[in-house]
Amino acid sequence: MDDEGFIINDAHFNKIQPVFLEVIQEIKDTCCQFLRDDLHSVYIRGSIPRGIGIEGVADVDMIILV
């Protein structure tokens, strides 16, 4: 939390390590292909967007909104 009591979001697309970018793109493409106009957004959460994912250990935590 910051000084005002707000939760700090330490996740950002720019922090995603290159090793995970291909699977993130595949997830995005698959969601767009199958959900089309029903897709609102795809959120990636957890260690990967925080830049601390470990290859071979980390999974892709996501929330898909339709």
TrEMBL record:
Q: Which InterPro entries match?
A: NT_sf
Q: What's the superkingdom here?
A: Bacteria
Q: Which SUPFAM superfamilies match?
A: Nucleotidyltransferase
Q: Identify this protein by name.
A: Polymerase nucleotidyl transferase domain-containing protein
Supply the source organism for this entry.
Answer: Bacillus mycoides
Biological classification of the source: Bacteria, Bacillati, Bacillota, Bacilli, Bacillales
